[in-house]
Amino acid sequence: MNNFVIYDIEEDKLRTRIFEICKDYGLKHVQYSTFFGQLNQNRREELFLKLKKIIGRQRAKIVIVPVCDKDIGLLKSINTYIEAGHELESH
Questions:
Q1: Would you say residue 86 has pLDDT above 90?
Q2: For residue 63, what are the β-bridge partners?
Q3: CB 20 within 8 A of CB 14
Q4: How many other C-beta atoms can be found within 10 angstroms of the C-beta atom of residue 33?
């Protein structure tokens, strides 16, 4: 199932660690503090527990949002960033 992982973490070192863990789980970085990708129920729970353990009592907010294919089909985005070799994207 598709998942968004969204976090708000003030401390740089902790935020970087969360960033790297999301990448390790094969999630795609879509914005500063947002990742997206496929995780089955077991991997999603594993990621949640790992992040929870790393966060401990530090100030942080992390939300993992499962999203069905139907809802992903309704997704709208605006992307005006131009990367080398890519045209402007707007969906």
A1: no
A2: 6
A3: no
A4: 17
To the nearest whole percent, how much of the chain has pLDDT over 70? Answer: 89
For 19-56, what is each residue's pLDDT tens digit? 999 999 999 999 999 999 999 999 999 999 999 999 99
Task: Report, in angstroms and rounded to the nearest whole number, the Rg of the chain calculated over CA atoms.
Answer: 14
**Nearest residue to 35 (alpha-carbon basis) of 11, 76, 67:** 67
Distance (Å, rounded) from C-alpha 15 to C-alpha 37?
19
Torsion of CA 38, 41, 46, 47, to 10 degrees: 40
Query: What is the pTM assigned to this prediction?
Result: 0.84
> Residue 45 and residue 78: Cα distance in Å, rounded?
30
CA distance 64 to 50: 12
Compute CA distances 31 → 17, 34, 41, whole Å. Answer: 16, 5, 23
